[in-house]
Design goal:
410 residues; Tyrosyl-Transfer RNA Synthetase; Structural Genomics Hypothetical 15.5 Kd Protein In mrcA-pckA Intergenic Region, Chain A; nucleotide-binding; RNA binding; ligase; protein biosynthesis; ATP-binding
């Protein structure tokens, strides 16, 4: 028998506030009524709810787009609930086909272990480590064995699996779907059974997998989890979702100056969505700030505040202040206080080769293209001659707005 939600708990003001925290910036909460009942029960009994986020460590670095769901977890931690940071070391061996039109190659156990360690270290910059339960799904997936896997597979039918958008499109296009790919949503769903999850978070592209977890919990006689999907964050271009492959991202391990400058580069329109999804300010404070901008305050003031908040989260308040001053200096054509020093030999040296050797361009050809675009300065003077040769001496070389090097040429 499925467990039934008991619904006679009072919906207090604190419960309503917890629901508002849950809904902030979310795409969908399914079903909202059940989540409200879970919150009311937790408030009445003092038993925290179990909130799960599963991440396959497919790449070692996290960008701020990934932190949208981490921020939501932190908000739910701050109102007293238990967060389970689930590392999919077993499911990474399968490869998540979500949103893909080809089979994703699985990772090796060694790659998974390295990436998982990096993932959690970076996620801890957002989550409260003292209130985070770290689990690996190999704990229960490895012992399942062939018999358990067959039993699990019997609890979901092929017709429903083929309702999944990416499977459906690939099938209609005559593209290959490997049988093992059907196991991925089943294993992710089984994670919810093993953890007795009350709520699972994910991006909008994970909705199908999250619903499988809800179905399997009911099949195993558990109270089904609720599902919270968060929107995918647009990157710096304001068009595509944030992605390293699109080069429109901010890595959370990037230096403070770069992080600050990148936040300031987003549009005034996109800034408000970033406030909702990335800021820890209250919705009331954000609404008041937006009203000030609508009434004539410079939107750059709001963007600077957001840039400082995000930079301080991943570095420090002092680093954020220094990054702001660095940005001001650069915008006035000034040189940052601290720039890397590079010692080179071979004077006189062509400017293209110098840019490459100083690490300011990937090749001499790229250096020449930067010169053609007016993006190279030596001692604050724009370089227009690609044939320029520099003799022995010390030079401040700048590429674009953010790359500097003090070059000592001998």
């Amino acid at each position: 028998m499925n467990q039934e939600l008991v619904t006679n708990f009072p919906v207090t003001d604190r419960v309503k506030e917890a629901l508002a925290v849950t809904l902030r910036g979310c795409e969908e909460l399914i079903p909202q009524g059940e989540w409200l009942t879970k919150l009311a029960r937790s408030e009445a009994t003092g038993v925290p709810l179990r909130i799960k986020l599963g991440l396959d460590p497919t790449a070692p670095d996290i960008h701020v787009g990934h932190t949208v769901v981490l921020n939501k977890l932190r908000q739910l931690q701050d109102i007293g609930h238990t967060v389970i940071f689930l590392i999919g070391d077993f499911t990474s061996l399968i490869g998540d086909p979500s949103g893909r039109n080809t089979t994703r190659p699985p990772l090796t156990p060694e790659q998974i272990k390295i990436n998982a360690q990096t993932y959690y270290k970076q996620a801890s910059l957002v989550l409260d480590p003292a209130r985070t339960e770290i689990r690996y799904n190999s704990e229960w997936s490895d012992p399942l064995g062939a018999r358990g896997m067959i039993e699990l597979a019997s609890k979901y039918n092929v017709a429903r699996m083929m309702e999944r958008d990416d499977f459906n499109k690939r099938f209609k296009a005559g593209q290959s779907i490997s049988v093992h790919e059907f196991l991925y949503p089943l294993m992710q769903g089984y994670d919810s059974v093993a953890l007795k999850s009350d709520l699972e978070l994910g991006g909008t592209d994970q909705k199908f997998n999250l619903l499988v977890g809800r179905h399997l919990q009911a099949e195993y006689g558990q109270e089904p989890q609720c599902i919270l999907t968060m929107p995918l964050l647009e990157g710096l271009d304001g068009v595509e979702k944030m992605s390293k492959s699109k080069n429109n991202y901010i890595g959370i391990s990037e230096d403070a100056n770069t992080m600050f400058a990148k936040v300031l580069s987003i549009s005034d329109v996109l800034m408000w969505k970033w406030y909702t999804l990335l800021s820890f300010q209250s919705e009331a404070d954000i609404a008041a700030l937006k009203k000030e901008v609508e009434d004539g305050r410079n939107p750059k003031d709001a963007k600077v505040a957001l840039a400082k908040e995000i930079t301080a989260r991943f570095h420090s308040a002092a680093a954020a202040d220094a990054a702001e001053q660095d940005f001001i200096n650069r915008s006035k054509g000034g040189v940052p206080d601290e720039i890397p020093e590079v010692r080179l030999s071979g004077a006189p040296l062509g400017i293209g080769a110098l840019l490459k050797m100083a690490g300011l361009a990937s090749s001499s050809g790229e250096g020449n293209r930067l010169i053609d675009g007016g993006g190279v300065r030596v001692d604050s003077n724009v370089v227009s001659d690609k044939a320029l040769k520099l003799g022995a001496g010390t030079y401040v070389v700048q590429v674009g707005k953010r790359k500097f090097a003090k070059v000592v040429l001998a």
